[in-house]
Amino acid sequence: MPYGIRPVGIRGTGISLPKRVLTNRDLEKIVDTSDEWITSRTGIKSRRIADDDVTTSMLASEAAERALRDAGIGADKIGLTIVATITPDMMFPATACLVQDRIGAKNSAAYDLEAGCTGFIYALATGAQFVSSGIYDHVLVIGAETVSRIMDWEDRNTCVLFGDAAGAAVLGPVGEDYGVLGIDLGSDGGGGNLLDLPAGGSLHPADEGTVANKMHYLRMQGNEVFKFAVRTMSESPLRALDIAGLDKKDIDYIVPHQANERIIQAALRRLQLSGDKAYINLDRYGNTSAASVPIALHEAKEEGKVKDGDIVVLVAFGAGLTWGSVVLRWGRGET
Ligand code: UT7
User: Fold this and answer.
1) Annotated catalytic residue, options 117, 138, 159, 298
2) Is it true that the peptide bond before 88 is cis, omega within 30 degrees of 0?
3) C-alpha dihedral over 117, 25, 56, 200, to 10 degrees?
């Protein structure tokens, strides 16, 4: 059974990766860490870092243009552009508006959505409603980040984990029984202090004091987030599958948020899925926050791991705290 009124799915994907590679060995020269520690605790070997003159909207626009080419449609066919990010170019205007202008999506509404690393899943679930209801035929959903800009490069607890990048998907109508079959979104604002960036908003407006206290950097209680991650990454897919009338045995492939290989393996064990059913690229890119799921999905598709007719689960967790899963039957079907 399709999820809404009109079946909606992913008709094209694209990514943008900064050229500069920062390896664990490079990090050994910046903070008191080691390749051995980072690899064994996270699985990460390297990450991409955007050059100083590259912004989130630039990465987002490049990924979007590639996704549009993949979908075979022009930017003028997009009715809505949603950018999921925790690192917008600025407080306002929305990064989505900067992307809309840059790619020439002249018929598109545009807004940002902030759900931490779950942002792309939230954006996909939101955008799908507009296609499903018939309000728009095509929606562009983008996860884009320059997390390096909010890193405290003296804090080894966080700076070794993240990377910059963008991933995009074009949503559009698909054939009966294809596309989005089930969605599970959730939040627990009570855990907001476990992963945050406290300054620059109405609570702590930017001033010399907030800068001196490093309040414009990402802060995280890694251990607590880890426990939350394993729980939500294994439970949320089950709820989305249930809505789709499916079971964990029906999963052909899972594309998880790329934060930590130990989190992914623990979630797979709980879902009784073998390792070859999940895509992992965090060794190359680290945690790219909202960009992680669309990049992994794009690469899984390009490598032929996600095939027409497959039941695919996308799942993520992140700041908020938030979590979310989308169950899809991959492909376009007959439209
Ligand atoms: O997308 C959502 C974003 N967040 C996450 O996904 C984070 C989820 N959490 C994690 O991935 C893990 O908790 C971490 C990778 C962040 C940390 O791994 P851990 O096994 O939970 O380590 P820990 O925090 O318990 O730290 C163990 C030790 C500490 O030393 P002491 O206090 O035991 O002496 C840390 O100071 O490891 C130390 N440590 C490091 N050592 C070398 C922390 N970071 C580093 C480092 N290099 N980069």
Assistant:
1) 117
2) no
3) 70
Amino acid at 112: D
| Catalytic, out of 97, 260, 287, 298 | 287
* pTM exceeds cut of 0.90: yes
- DSSP at 303: T
Task: Round to whole Å and give the CA distance between 237 and 181.
Answer: 12
Q: Is 287 one of the catalytic residues?
A: yes
Catalytic annotation present for 257: yes
Specify whether the backbone of 326 is left (phi greater than 0), alpha (psi in -120 to 50) or beta. Answer: beta
Whether the CB-CB separation of 27 and 159 falls below 8 Å is answered with yes
* CB 41 near ligand 1, within 6 Å: yes
> For residue 2, what pLDDT is reported?
47
- For the stretch 96-132, pLDDT in tens is 999 999 999 999 999 999 999 999 999 999 999 999 9
Which helix (H) or strand (E) segment is 111 a member of? strand 109-113
User: What DSSP letter does each residue of 209-222 carry, written as one string?
Assistant: HHHHTTTTS-EE-H
